[in-house]
């Protein structure tokens, strides 16, 4: 008999560690052979097409891209099941932010897989969710009053939980404030809050949402910053006066994701948050897409707004999803629960990612992410200089290039929706996985795995981007 559990003895087992090390070496042996873009293997075409056809039939519709991974990659390069290799510049909207087949994260996942618990829940749980939550809260509390963490299995559920907290705290208030062009997820309620009619066709509209204009730097330049901020405050006051004491929360995307990688303005945000506090409206910071990618780990740190945040949601990059909230918003029993909170591997890898983000030298104006963004801007500028016909003026004076840190966008072909979607498919064929964002105008969106990229690789990446855009321009 010892004071150690059998689980602890397994975790400390030299044999287990030796086996994990051997598996990581084997993965790395094959992964490092993936070192450039390549077309599909001739002998894989028929089987791959059959797999795509079956997948589409089972789903009821085809995949957006003909993408099914082989299970292996090397940093920013990913291998598909047909043997082709592409630059992954969208990272599964964030889950592959540290690239494919990362040795350290592979080892973490293998160790976590030794646990007998695949899924954790609110009834029975292991220690991994607690370790992840503790790490996330400790990081969040450096520049905020966030104190509690409730875990969930998707970003949409994290948002649902934040909404429930706001509604319970401010009952009977039933209205929500959000920015125009926001995206919240695809549950019935979140589809109603998200500002996209196409995402809620046939869904009853029983959620009361009032949309605020997002910060427009072109407008601010034309009429002046103070007047632009005053206009935002005027809009908010109009809603508050029209529906007194009826707003439970204001959802802030400090950097819009689906809405076009638009970066907000600190002073405008602060004045809006102050007005929310004055009227008893919860400040909800949705960072499910932007977390970790600006020049600070938390976007509220980047804008120095942490003291105003009551509710906070995170997901994607962190593998596990969570709603954080201040002590003031700690709910009554029964409001938050759920059968599952997430998987052992998700929590272990998520915690490792949080620790890496905190110690990797990624942040600040001279950090790695800022360096990557400057290299991206330079490549877009050079591309536009070589092909000015691909980059006509964009509606609304939208600059052809924008974003912050690891949220990058550029707008060829005037930002027209059909042309941008065509360009993204052409990029895929040329070996670059990207996506689109925005609402008239649209942009090509990149969420590259920056920690897995060398800044010097951007010219090579843009060779493939240029090839894809040349096909789209025909």
What's this entry about, in short?
The protein is an alpha/beta fold and 474 residues long.
Q: State the helical fraction.
A: 25-40%
What's the CATH C level of the largest domain?
Alpha Beta
| The named CATH superfamily of the largest domain | Type I PLP-dependent aspartate aminotransferase-like (Major domain)
The number of helical segments is 15
Estimate the global geometry from the Cα principal axes: globular
What CATH architecture label of the largest domain applies? Answer: 3-Layer(aba) Sandwich
Spatial arrangement of strands, main beta sheet: 5-11-10-9-8-6-7
Strand content: 15-25%
Structural class, please? Answer: alpha/beta
How widely separated are the two ends? 75 Å
Q: At the third CATH level, what is the topology name of the largest domain?
A: Aspartate Aminotransferase, domain 2
User: What's the total number of strands?
Assistant: 17
* Uncertain spans: none
Q: Radius of gyration in whole Å, from Cα?
A: 23 Å
Q: Mind summarizing the main beta sheet?
A: 7 strands, mixed
Query: What number of domains?
Result: 2
Write down the overall mean pLDDT.
97
């Amino acid at each position: 008999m010892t004071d150690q559990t059998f689980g602890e003895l397994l975790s400390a087992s030299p044999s287990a560690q030796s086996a994990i090390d051997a598996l990581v070496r084997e993965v790395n042996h094959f992964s490092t052979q993936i070192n450039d873009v390549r077309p599909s293997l001739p002998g894989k075409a028929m089987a791959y097409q059959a797999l795509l056809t079956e997948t589409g039939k089972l789903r009821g519709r085809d995949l957006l891209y003909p993408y099914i991974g082989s299970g292996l990659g090397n940093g920013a390069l990913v291998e598909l099941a047909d043997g082709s290799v592409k630059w992954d510049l969208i990272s599964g909207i964030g889950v592959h932010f540290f690239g494919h087949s990362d040795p350290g994260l592979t080892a973490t996942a293998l160790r976590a897989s030794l646990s007998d618990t695949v899924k954790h829940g609110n009834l029975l749980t292991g220690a991994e969710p607690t370790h992840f939550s503790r790490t996330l809260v400790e990081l969040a509390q450096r520049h905020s009053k966030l104190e509690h963490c409730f875990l969930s299995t998707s970003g949409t559920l994290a948002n649902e939980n934040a909404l429930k907290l706001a509604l319970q705290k401010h009952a009977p208030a039933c209205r929500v404030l959000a920015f125009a062009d926001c995206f919240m997820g695809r549950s019935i309620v979140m589809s109603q809050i998200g500002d996209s009619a196409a995402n809620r066709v046939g869904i009853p509209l029983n959620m009361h949402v009032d949309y605020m204009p997002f910060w427009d730097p072109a407008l601010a330049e034309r009429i002046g910053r103070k007047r632009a901020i005053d206009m935002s405050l005027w809009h908010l006051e109009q809603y508050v006066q029209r529906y007194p004491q009826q707003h439970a929360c204001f959802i802030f995307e400090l950097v819009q994701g689906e809405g076009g990688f638009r970066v907000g303005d600190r002073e405008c945000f602060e004045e809006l948050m102050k007005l929310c506090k004055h009227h008893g409206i919860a400040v909800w910071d949705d960072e499910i897409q932007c977390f970790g990618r600006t020049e600070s780990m938390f976007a509220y740190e980047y804008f120095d707004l942490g003291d105003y945040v009551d509710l906070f949601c995170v997901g994607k990059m962190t593998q596990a999803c969570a709603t954080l909230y201040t002590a003031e918003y700690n709910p009554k029993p029964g409001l938050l629960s759920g059968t599952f909170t997430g998987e052992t591997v998700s929590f272990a890898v998520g915690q490792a990612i949080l620790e890496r983000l905190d110690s990797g030298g990624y942040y600040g104006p001279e950090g790695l992410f800022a360096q990557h963004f400057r290299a991206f801007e330079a490549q877009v500028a050079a591309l536009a200089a070589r092909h000015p016909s691909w980059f006509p003026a964009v509606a609304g004076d939208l600059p052809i290039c924008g974003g912050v840190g690891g949220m990058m966008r550029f707008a060829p072909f005037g930002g027209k929706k059909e042309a941008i979607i065509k360009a993204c498919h052409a990029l895929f064929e040329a070996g670059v996985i990207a996506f689109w964002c925005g609402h008239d105008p649209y942009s090509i969106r990149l969420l590259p795995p920056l920690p897995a990229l060398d800044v010097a690789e951007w010219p090579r990446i843009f060779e493939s981007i240029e090839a894809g855009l040349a096909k789209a321009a025909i």
